[in-house]
Amino acid sequence: QKEVEQNSGPLSVPEGAIASLNCTYSDRGSQSFFWYRQYSGKSPELIMFIYSNGDKEDGRFTAQLNKASQYVSLLIRDSQPSDSATYLCAVQIQGAQKLVFGQGTRLTINP
Amino acid sequence: NAGVTQTPKFQVLKTGQSMTLQCAQDMNHNSMYWYRQDPGMGLRLIYYSASEGTTDKGEVPNGYNVSRLNKREFSLRLESAAPSQTSVYFCASSERRPGADTQYFGPGTRLTVL
To answer: Which of B34, B8, B110 lies closest to A42, judged by CA?
Structure first.
């Protein structure tokens, strides 16, 4: 079993709708969770991170963490064509500075 | 403030050749990382350096060496390149924030080994 799993997609969402991206992880010692966005041919850029159970909102983005069920999700409200990218979930294990990345979900927003 | 910079942007090598990928950051971060990214594989950690003078292996270290030259610079060396090392290489540095160590990535080096 992979340590961090994401549905590779592609996930297709109409413009203006909510895009929902999911990630599960296997290590219960994981303490911090990150969402990165990566445009084709570019480097990953940090969207947000979360480390407490519940929701964290930043503009149109909301990260949700459920440690008991070992999943983290990213919601994108009012999706725009510029949100079309690959979204990478990453997990930091307690006591370690390393991140473990999922394989990414490719998201396409259709005008 | 340039963030994380990497050179070169593109490189083509023949099997058996050697080369060094350079990475520098100007954000005064202690920790630096080297990843490779292959289609469908996500990012995989090659080596990292928690602080100046220390380096540790990541998930896929075979065929690579690293040097943490000073706090700003972290280089990755391929001694004898193989076609399996064809990939996009990203360098990153991280800062400690409440609750997490957040990593910031350079623009990447696209390497092809023939």
So the answer is: B110
Determine the pLDDT at residue A1. Answer: 58
User: Mind telling me how many Å the CA of A79 is from chain B's nearest CA?
Assistant: 24
Cis peptide bond upstream of B8, omega within 30: yes
User: What residues of chain B lie within 8 A of the CB of A10, using their CB?
Assistant: none
Whole-number CA gyration radius for chain A: 13
**Which are the contacts of A22, defined by CB distance < 8 A and separation ≥ 6?**
A6, A7, A71, A72, A73, A105
Mean pLDDT for chain A? 93
Q: What single letter denotes the amino acid at residue A75? A: L
Q: For position A2, what pLDDT does the model report?
A: 66
CA atoms within 13 A on the CB side of B62: 2
CB atoms near residue A1 (< 10 Å): 5
Do B43 and A101 make contact, defined as CB atoms within 8 angstroms?
Answer: yes
Across the range A86-104, mean pLDDT stands at 89
Whose CA is closest to B77, among B68, B86, B67, B69? B67
Over residues A31-56, the pLDDT tens digits come to 899 999 999 999 999 999 999 889 99
- DSSP structural state of residue B110: E
For residue A24, pLDDT beyond 70? yes
